[in-house]
Design a protein that fits this description.
456 residues, alpha/beta, Amidase signature (AS) enzymes, eleven-stranded mixed sheet, two-stranded antiparallel ribbon, 16 helices
Length: 456
């Protein structure tokens, strides 16, 4: 197989090619590194590339296979977001404000290495993971491989850009308010936020709202990674299993106040609903998201306080961008009783949101309310209006970080300008396999991974 094709094949297919001896890990990883060298000056997906170690790990994977060894990701190139600890490096969280080095790999990185994966590098994110784009004054902008005038989203924007550009077979991101689903939606990839605590993290992050999840080219790639990160749940089998006839609700109503929905986004959701009906599912319109400002206000309270707490724990908070410091200051000014009330309200929000799953198996919504943001779109916007604009773009996503439910961004065609469109599939609590089964069915009916960005 041509190495360029292998770089774009996705983690599951790469694992098959390596297992069959069609390609060596050394050759695959070396070609991925050549692609990074050639294209990442423009895309800025990686904060650090571990070229020397990656090649050594690839050689070790080839030697292990030559001895008859195997592992689920043996020799497969992957990337990890910079908020996941890597031993001997600062866990930078998108900042220049951390000097302390981690004494060991995070749980996710340990699982990847144990499964034989070759960690090519760590990917960029916005400071503290606060934005649905990936850029800062000191690091510049990470750009979308489909259009370098646009962002790949955030906060796992570097992870998504790396996968879409064929730099790695898969990547792991984190999601506290849509940060896996946003960049997957922006780059034409599949991104899954598992249920809270499904994938082990090293302690609760953002009060338990943050989870780690895969960003991949194919659904089966995500299932394979999830079987590595959270073994024992049969994710890979689920991704290729016909889910049977399911009851699927469709909602175009965002959480909280009314938010304009781009006509192409609306059309993508309705087109996906039609495809699901054609595939035999019972699809009904049911706008179930809670109305009013109470839920979103509670989320905003927790988000802002998390920003303040994370900033306060940095070695050098003064190195943060002025906009990041302003967000943290808003969180620091919140009364403690307001934060406690927001946390206490989460159970009521969760119960209300999950009513839909009393008589439905899955919920279909938009992923984003509009197209991917342009690079620098909110650069000169004051902090509060920028936060509100970001909230409008992501209005269908943060609810499921409050409730903990599994949710995925699924590619759903292209806008007129060629940028990706996506929908969101939300499952009942702990129903990752239902989400994977239906997403896999959609991919088989409407493949999306045959197109590649035309990188110069």
């Amino acid at each position: 197989m041509d190495l360029t094709d292998a770089c774009h094949a996705g983690a599951a297919r790469q694992a098959e090619l390596l297992r069959a001896g069609v390609v060596r890990s050394r050759d695959l990883v070396a070609e991925c590194l050549r692609r990074v060298e050639r294209h990442d000056r423009r895309l800025n997906a990686f904060r650090l590339v571990f070229a020397e170690r990656a090649l050594a790990d690839a050689d070790a994977a080839d030697a292990r296979r030559a001895r008859g060894g195997d592992a689920p990701l043996l020799g497969v190139p992957v990337a990890v977001k910079e908020d996941l600890a890597v031993a001997g490096l600062p866990t930078t969280n998108g900042t220049a404000a951390v000097d302390r080095v981690a004494d060991r790999d995070s749980a996710a990185v340990r699982s990847l290495r144990a499964a034989g994966a070759v960690v090519v590098g760590r990917t960029r994110m916005p400071e503290l993971g606060l934005w649905p784009h990936t850029e800062s004054s000191w690091a510049g902008a990470t750009r979308n491989p489909w259009s370098t005038a646009h962002s790949p989203g955030g906060s796992s924007g570097g992870s998504a850009a790396a996968v879409a550009a064929g730099f790695v077979g898969a990547a792991v991101g984190t999601d506290g308010a849509g940060s896996v689903r946003i960049p997957a939606a922006c780059t034409g990839l599949f991104g899954l936020k598992p249920h809270r605590d499904h994938v082990p993290l090293d302690g609760p992050v953002w009060g338990g709202m943050v989870v780690a999840g895969p960003i991949t080219r194919h659904v089966r790639d995500a299932a394979l990674l999830l079987d590595v990160l959270a073994p024992g749940h049969g994710h890979t089998a689920a991704a290729s299993t016909d889910p049977g006839r399911l009851r699927i609700a469709v909602s175009l109503r965002p959480w909280g106040p009314a938010t304009p929905l781009d006509p192409e986004v609306r059309a993508a959701v309705l087109d996906t609903a039609g495809l699901l009906a054609d595939l035999g599912h019972d699809v009904t319109r049911r706008d179930t998201a809670p109305r009013g400002l109470g839920g979103p206000a509670g989320f905003a309270t927790r988000y802002l306080r998390a920003a303040a707490d994370t900033a306060a724990d940095l070695d050098h908070p003064a190195r943060l961008d002025a906009g990041t410091r302003r967000v943290a200051a808003l969180g620091a000014a919140l009364p403690a009783r307001a934060v406690r009330a927001a946390v206490a309200r989460a159970d009521r929000v969760t119960a209300r949101a999950n009513r839909v799953f009393a008589d439905h198996d899955l919920l279909l919504t938009p992923a984003l309310t509009g197209p991917p943001p342009r690079v620098g779109q909110w650069r000169r916007t004051p902090t509060v209006p920028a936060l509100l604009a970001a909230a409008r773009l992501t209005a269908f996503l943060p609810l499921w970080n409050i409730t903990g439910n599994p949710a995925a961004a699924v590619p759903a065609g292209r806008a007129r300008g060629g940028l990706p469109l996506a929908v969101q599939l939300v499952g009942a609590p702990h129903a990752e396999n239902t989400v994977l089964a239906v997403a896999g069915q959609l991919e088989r009916a409407r493949p999306w991974a045959d197109r590649r960005p035309d990188l110069p």
